[in-house]
Specification:
heterodimer; A: about 250 residues; alpha/beta; Rossmann fold; 4-stranded antiparallel sheet; 10 helices; about 25% strand; B: about 260 residues; mainly alpha; globular
């Protein structure tokens, strides 16, 4: 379980997070929605320790993240980055097996390659792709490789940062389906940030809307459409008129 | 109004000093990362190849032409007080003490600091550095340490090669164009060159190699977003590394040779 309480983060005068409280139950898929620049990525990066929050606590299964051993903490996470963030200098299989080729979880090279090919197959890529380099792949394939890398070491918690951004609707649908399947299959806790409502409906158990640095609304995805919150309604229906515009 | 230019000088001086301070902090972090495992041998060997072997042509050509030009200049200048026979020893001492390490360092700064800053800067803006962290890999140990170590080891070797080729350039011009006696040229070169002349140049090379990679990594890691951000990081890396090489060269020369 991930529990965030009173999370604050400012960049200079720009107060991005102003007291975020959010709980993601174990094995659930939480999707955080919100407009561009509302701090969704900062929220994920705070949890991973890539950005240091100014105040607030992050608890993973009841333990304060700040007090945990960093390597052991990160070993529990997998992350799919928005642009894939694949390492250009490494081949596809070396990207997928990155964690398996070094560090405490190091495996023999042949075994790591085998696992990488298996994970590639899981995300719908043929073994021939394994020896290509990221620059030789299309955007959709890069996302799949990023997904394979995120799940390679069987993490307990997986983060997805804008998983469908930049993809055509069909490919976006494929990625959404894959994410849903994999999260269910692995029993992992998932946290996704997106502004793609199709993605929300395909992936989420629970939804949280981040606006003005706080969680404006949170609840199960099935309650989202009937929720009275005007901010949420404006966002999910993509209306130009409403309270969010007046804030902008 | 009148004070505006003075204020601008003050601002840029302060910004320069702040950057120098941040580089110093980065240096301490790099050394700390060097002392703790894991060590990435593959990345180190790749960096050694990219920085050392691939810089050979540019360093060799620079040294060859500089050695040749130096021989011409010394011959011309020395003729004014009847001392053209000093050409071999001045070429040799000038190359190994000063021009070999400094020009080698500057060429490597242009070639390597720029490519390191651009590569790491692009990794930063495409979130590859963040991805490294999430994969339990410290970017300082994985990216910075191998490059800094490789450059520190590679540059003295490049300087040694450059010294030899520079002396050869002087020899070719001295014997071919200035009609100096070949045997006498070689004899004078060896006779007046001390071991310390050579080693001091190699030590300078190691220091310059360290600076080049450190500065390249620093600006890459601190690159701002977008193509412009990476472009600025690359430019700053080359300019800063070059200036630091020239300033450090003066300090090392003071340290090594002032009586």
């Amino acid at each position: 379980m991930i529990a965030l309480s009173g999370l604050h983060k400012s960049f200079g005068a720009n107060r991005v997070l102003r007291g975020v409280d959010l709980t993601v139950p174990k094995g659930e898929s939480m999707v955080v929605i919100g407009g561009s620049g509302t701090g969704k990525s900062v929220l994920l990066k705070c949890i991973l320790g890539l950005v240091k929050p100014d105040a607030g606590t992050i608890r993973i299964d009841g333990q304060d993240a700040a007090s945990l051993d960093r390597d052991a903490f990160l070993a529990r996470f997998g992350m799919l980055f928005q642009g894939g963030a694949l390492f250009d200098s490494l081949s596809v299989w070396q990207n997928v097996a990155f964690r398996l080729l070094r560090g405490p979880g190091k495996r023999p090279k042949a075994e790591a390659r085998e696992i990488a090919i298996e994970k590639l197959r899981r995300v719908g890529l043929k073994p021939e792709v394994a020896d290509l380099y990221p620059a030789e792949l299309s955007g959709g394939m890069q996302k799949r490789v990023g997904l394979a890398r995120a799940i390679a070491a069987e993490p307990e918690i997986i983060f997805f940062d804008e998983p469908t951004t930049g993809l055509d609707p069909i490919m976006a649908g494929v990625i959404n389906e894959l994410i849903r399947e994999i999260v269910v299959e692995m029993g992992a806790t998932a946290m996704t940030i997106t502004h793609d409502m199709t993605s929300v409906r395909a992936i989420a158990d629970d939804v949280a809307m981040l606006h003005d640095g706080v969680i404006q609304w949170t609840g199960p995805v099935k309650d989202m459409d009937a929720a009275p919150d005007p901010y949420l309604q404006q966002f999910i229906h993509g209306r130009a008129e409403g309270p969010i515009e007046s804030v902008r | 109004m009148i004070l505006a230019p003075v204020a601008a000088i003050g601002r840029s001086t302060l910004a320069g000093l702040a950057a120098l301070g941040r580089i110093a902090i980065f240096l301490v972090a790099t050394i700390a990362a060097m002392l703790r495992p894991p060590f990435y041998l593959r990345e180190f060997l790749q960096a050694l190849w990219a920085i050392g072997y691939n810089s050979l042509p540019v360093v060799a050509l620079t040294a060859l032409f500089t050695g040749g030009a130096l021989a011409l200049q010394i011959y011309e200048g020395g003729a004014r007080f009847n001392a053209s026979q000093v050409v071999p020893s001045i070429v040799a001492i000038g190359m190994v003490r000063e021009l070999g390490p400094v020009l080698g360092g500057l060429m490597v700064a242009a070639r390597v600091a720029s490519s390191i800053a651009a590569e790491i800067g692009t990794m930063k803006v495409t979130e590859q550095i963040d991805a490294l962290v999430t994969l339990s890999t410290d970017p300082m140990r994985y990216l910075t340490v191998p490059r800094v170590l490789a450059a520190t080891i590679a540059l003295p070797v490049l300087v040694a090669v450059g010294d030899s080729i520079g002396i050869l350039g002087g020899y070719l011009v001295g014997t071919g164009r200035l009609e100096l006696n070949a045997a006498a040229y070689l004899k004078t070169t060896v006779e007046y060159l001390t071991l310390w002349d050579v080693t001091s140049g190699l030590i300078k090379g190691a220091v310059f190699g360290f600076i080049v990679a450190l500065v390249g990594c620093y600006f890459g890691m601190n690159s701002e977003r977008g193509a412009q951000g990476v472009g600025r990081a690359t430019k700053s890396a080359v300019v800063t590394a070059s200036v630091m090489i020239l300033a450090t060269n003066y300090l090392l020369t003071e340290l090594f040779f002032s009586a």
